[in-house]
Amino acid sequence: MNFATELKAWSKQVDDALDLYLPKAEEYPATIHEAMRYSVFAGGKRLRPVLVLAATQAVGGDVAKVMPVACALELIHTYSLVHDDLPAMDNDDFRRGRPTNHKVYGEAMAILVGDALLTHAFELIARSAEDYPADKVNTVTLEIAWAAGSRGLIGGQVVDMLSENKAITGEVMEYIHRHKTGALFRAAVRAGAILGGASEEELSCLTRYSEQMGLAFQIKDDLLDIEGDEAKIGKPVGSDLKNQKCTYPSLYGLEQARNMAQQAAEAACAELKIFGSRAEFLRSLVHFIISRDH
Ligand code: GRG
Question: DNA repair among the record's keywords (predicted)?
């Protein structure tokens, strides 16, 4: 199976599993369940759950068995997007090409949707104790809780908020991205690897893979933002870098940012040597991430 076909097939399996694991839209109280489903099924790329599946595959684990944990990562990601879009945060009207959760269901309901998705994620992880030894589930729970908490994505969001309208250093920007974006990618890969039965060496390689992949993702995201904005207002790409909030292109320039994304992608792939053909999907995923257009 080629990469695009496999990505599509895994995304479909993730969607089917999410549909199974989430409360039905009609379940009382229906408003919250409908609103949870509204954001979960809004057309995300499913990168985090697919990373869980691919990391398990790379270490020879059972892909079907790890699905609940894969879905948990997508629920945490979706919760962070719903809360990030709120008026008190980024105040965004659109996400994944449709009105944001609070625009449709109101601010109070969107807060509760985020809370419910985060909580449901940990319910799914806990249920994995039926399929894995308790110590492994415990390790993975800690990994994911760490990544989602104030030492992970919340920490990144806080530093991002406090840095708004200030000139920040490369180190602060790296902190923001490693926590806000990188932590969940890292937890996804490590969770899949641990549950799949990774050796210490395999886990170390996959951890470094996830960190470099996360960096490549973030730089590409910054580049896409510029290309998107400037296409809309008809300016040449990169002409307005100084007025951008602190991003890789605004700090390092367009050319260097592109090189950095490429270097991070190559560094990520270099970590996959010991896995041979079992890591083919993870290899292709990095190329997909740096060549994507959205
Ligand atoms: C809990 C409020 C709160 C915030 C936590 C993660 C986060 C901080 C906020 C999410 C918003 C954001 C812009 C995060 C940066 C990472 C990023 C570019 C997310 C988008 O990920 P994709 O491209 O999205 O995988 P899809 O829609 O495809 O799932």
Answer: no
